Sequence to fold (443 residues):
Amino acid sequence: MSQFYSEVEGLSREELRNLQSERLRALVKYVYERMPFYRQKFDALKIKPEDIKDISDIVKLPFTTKQDIVDNYPLKLLAVPMKEVVRIQSSSGTTGRNIFMPYTKNDLELWTEVMARAYWRVGVYEDDIVQIAYGYGLFTGGLGFHQGAERIGATVIPTSAGNTRRQIQIMQDLGTTVLCCTPSYALYIAEVGNEMGVDFASLPLRVGIFGAEPWSEEMRDEIEKKLHIDAYNMYGLCEIIGPGVANECEYKDGMHINEDVFYPEIIDPQTGEPLPPGEKGELVLTTLTKEALPLIRYRTRDICSINPEPCKCGRTFWRLSRIQGRTDDMIIVRGINVFPSQIESVLLSVGGVAPHYEIIVDREKGRLDTLELRVEVSESFLSDEMRSLEELRQRLEEALESALDISVNLTLAEPGSIPRSEGKAKRVIDKRELFQREGGERK
Ligand code: ADP
Ligand code: ZN
Fold:
């Protein structure tokens, strides 16, 4: 068996650049001829497809935003006749309006290929039994993981999300070796399993592939300990393909981006200027080979960095850091920017609490913003009667204050009292937003 699912993962950087350049040249021609949306944008900037010769010329091209897709609802950006579209999926709608993403036969093939690579990267092959507990349907999670698992010849159990006890029963009865779902759902599965008296250490389960929402290194430790598995990070978004844009290899040190098909850049989200490798900013992706709805320099709003160092696994694709969060999830409290994932990381590193928390941002009329945090005490902390809850509460507040420079009002909640999630967890309740939406002062 070859080391990588696809040989392209081992190309030299120079070979890869040549391939990217060749594909970008074809792409600009393709969108110019087929998509009035891009033709107009190019014309306005006086760019002709012939001006784009090398992948480094990509910076001359305009950005595409989520708003552009929303403005062209439902499918005005389609680059092929509808009869060539074989599937339509949708974003999960975490932020604002739903959008549709169409796939041609080749687009589905591309998606299946990158998902097959993803499984191989974490050592999942045809002998494995893969339980897919991401939601199936319009959301890209379920079907994306499904196609890739079928392609590598694994045994697929398409449980979809939900029905957690049954999920665990199936895991035991069929001997699931690989679990795919959101990290928050993985934790919930562990918790329900404990209530059912399941000993995860004795199950054949050994790998988890988790994504679709931000999570921290500390959360990885928790999940690995509770489920007795190796947990790997997976990144993707519906606009680009779904899951399968980037994922970790066995070394768990950044997610290899499938750069032969999704060209990454990091920009300063304020100015749009490209940033050098290693610096943190907004991820921008170009779909180099997609047919139904290719995107040029798509602004993902996801904040992360790219590591260009070679990886021990031998794959030459650069690696994406953990996604800190989306520019839209960033909480700005009294001028300080915080991501829920940073709060999670501090809480779990102090200990004594479980990775179940809720962040409530509020603003009383004419007052400053307030940040309230509800986090569950861990069972093990509670069972040790000698320890004081008040002392823990203070320790957590101090740690948050010194790490993030924000003051919070932290409440310890009882185990099990914060709502669990079967899909993407909702961590932030922004009451300021509610106020605005209900026709408050600002739009
Ligand atoms: P949406 O949530 O916008 O409705 P998607 O279901 O396509 O649509 O979700 C894609 C988004 O999910 C990404 O842009 C990113 O913000 C988030 N996401 C996906 N995978 C990860 C991950 N591994 N870590 C952090 N965030 C992720
Ligand atoms: Zn690697």
